[in-house]
Structures are given as structure tokens and as C-alpha cells.
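Re: the 494-residue chain
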Amino acid sequence: MKIIRINEMDNVAVALENLEAGIEISAEGFSLITKEEVPAGHKVALKDIASGEKIIKYGNAIGVAVSEIKAGSHVHTHNMKTGLGDLLNYSYHPVEIPAAEKKNAGFMGYERKNGKAGIRNDIWIIPTVGCVNDVAKAIERESASFAEGSVENVIAFRHPYGCSQMGDDQEHTRQILANLINHPNAGGVLVLGLGCENSNIDVLKGYLGDYDETRVEFLVAQEYEDEIGEGVERIKKLIERCRDEKRVSMDASRLVVGLKCGGSDGFSGITANPLVGKFSDLLVAAGGSTILTEVPEMFGAEEILMNRCVNEEVFSKTVNLINDFKQYFKSHNQTIYENPSPGNKAGGISTLEDKSNGCTQKSGSSAVVDVLKYGETVSVPGLNLLSAPGNDLVAATGLAAAGAQIILFTTGRGTPFASPVPTMKISSNSNIAGRKSNWIDFNAGELLEEGGPDLNTLADRLFEKVLRVANGEQVKSEAAGFYDMAIFKQGVTL
């Protein structure tokens, strides 16, 4: 099979391999001769498409032809454009949600005093301000050898914020840091402040709520002659307190998994994203929670999500999620649809609708139960939507701060980045899985291989893989020692 037609309504198909010009292809009731070369992952016209006619993929419009396109032609940015507008009015048309298979599954995790479940028992160092980033890393280096028992790592998370911020930026920084301090994957946390910053320790304590004082230490660097030595001593205390923590049996309903994609290609919406969507349905059916974010990559497919909202209140929150993010673009005089990226386009994605219809496949078919503002945490089990941008590091950090213990990250191009929580890379094609085995944890490209597993079989394997990671199996970025974080910045820096 050289091409795949995703939906019977589609007037384009996706090339599964590089197609030369002048070859005859017969597949799925279509017979055509390629007019030109079509790279793997890119679209080929199944019929003549008139100028101004909609390009249909996934059964939905992903753009409009800007010139006549003959059957067998390469369909991409040179002959199609986005068909999206700006702010839109929406109507709620709820759809029936199919019942998903109920799995009785569990994992071994760490029980926290606030009732949350951790899948790691690491020691985290959270700077309140970027001025002490290098101090945090120095404490990490000098403390690493003291890790023992169930404490495997001491990790410092650097960021450039915490001072010279105003309004929402300052509030976001404080809330994200507070959420990470309370995150169940951390057995203990050293909160490292400078002393003169806007978001100093005394201010930040007001955002922590009812936190476990036995697992958090605070250190103001300006108050100590040797802040690094003092930091190491605090880390030793934290390790001593939590090194004897034991994993206990937990139901899969205790899991919260973030869903993210980046460096997508033309196969992402056919393999990796639908696979993660099937996983999401399985976890939700088991009583767990998943979080879909990167709002700009919902534009053009948002009504699919809106019509799966459990009620009109959640529908209204989803409408606000979409239009507020569009307004954010407009308030900065930026084009709403300045997407996909150069890498996406090279991989065969032509418009934002093209990317969005593939991106939202990660949500599966479950009902949308809640919509979270940036900095809010999951409170309703099931599929949640989170307000955050498409940027990989910012969105992944937002997912972790929202309560995700694991993030599933699909990619067709590959990336080494990580986040504060285990970030599992799922490839959309077998080529990148083979070439970058040091990055990729799971290969969804098997779905396109002759004799390969079907979607349900591979989703079961992914579900088991996630449970193993929850049990302590490291993902590739963890094994490499990679941990990243980034906070959403929107406004003025003083």
C-alpha cells in the first residue's frame, strides 16, 4: 500500500512512501497516476479539485485550494491555504460518546499525605527566581551522591522568572511554582529564594495552600554566608525523611497523564496521535484522567471537542478557551493561524486545520469533563482541556503543573526535550524510531508496517508501557538526565 485515505469523505490521501512522478496507484477504490513527486507523509489529490474547493482530510476541511489541482498532484502549501477565520460563534451539538473498554489495572506508586499519588520519589529544587538558577544547579551537583533508598535523583529546575514581572505573568509564575512544589512526584522539595525578588518565599507560601511541611524546606540565599553548603544540608534532611518511602499498590484511576505533540509530520494524525487517543479512552474508562493542551493546535478542530463536552457549562468554557486564546494573538497584533512550523510543513502538514485535526486525535473519543485555566489542577476525573500554548516546553510544564505524573509526547521529527515529569516520546513513523532510539520510547509507526499490530493491540501495549513507567521504569529522557521547565510569559518585563 503506497497511500492511505483516512476517511471515506477525503479528496486527498497521504503518501506512505516517497512517490515518483508518473506511477500508477490503485488503492481503496481509487486509481490515479502521480503528476509529480510526492514525499512520504504528504498529500496527493484523489480527484480533480477546483480552485476555491475545500481540501478534505480526516473527513473535515483542512484548507482551500488556491488553484486547480489535478488528480495525482501533490497537495501542499503551494496550492492550498487555510480556510479559517478569526473569532467565531459556536453552537452546542452534543454527540453520543461510545463506551470504551474498562480495564482493571493498577501500578505501584507513592501515597502522599494530600491524597495524591506519586510515581517518583525524587528531591526537587525549585528556584523562586532566575537569579539563583546556578546556585540551584550547584546544590544539585553536590547533593546527588547522597540520594539513597527510594530517592533516586536530586533535580534542580531552572527558569528565568520570579522578578520584574507584572499582572498575569507574575501570577502564573507563582502558581506554576506552587503547583510544582506540591507535585506528588517529588518526595521532598527545596524552595530556593534569593530574598529580594517579587515572588519571594514569603509571598509564594501564600500560593501553596495546605502543604506537607515535612517534605518542603525553604532557603533564602541572602541570609546565609554559604548558601550552597546550607542547601546541601537541607537536601540531606529531605532525603533522610523520604528515603524509606515504599511503593504501594494503586488503582489506575489514580493516574493523570498529559497529552502533547511536537515536531509532527504527515503520519502523526494517522499513527501516534490516534494511538494516544485510544490510550486516553482506556485510561478514562479505568477512572483515570488525561489532559489535552496546546490550544492554538485545536483551532480548526475545536468543534469536535465542543460537541463532546458533558454539558453546556463545559461547552461554554471550551468556547472561551478557544476565543480567549485567539484574542491573545490578536491583542499582540499577531496572525492567529501562523502555524504549522517549518518542520511540520516539511513533514507534510500544510495548514493549521491539517495539524489541528491530527493533533486532536490525541483526545480519543471520550467526553470532555472540564476545562482548566493555565495554572489550575485537575479536579474532575476524565478528559480535561488545559489552556496553554503549543510551545513544547511551556505546554509540557503546564501539564505537569496541572497534576500530570506522566506526559505522552508524540512526534514525527524527534526531540530530546523533557519536562518536570517522565516525558514519553512516541514516534509516528518507524524511521525516526530507528534513527533516534536514544529519544524514542514507543513506536506507533508499527501501525503502518505490513503485518504490524492493529490500533487496539498497540494501544494495549502502550497502556502497559505507561503502567511500567508509573512503576518506576525510566523513559529515555530520564535515563539521559534531561529535565526541563518553562513558564508561559505574555506581558511586560520590568
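Residues 317 and 468 are 35 Å apart (CA to CA).
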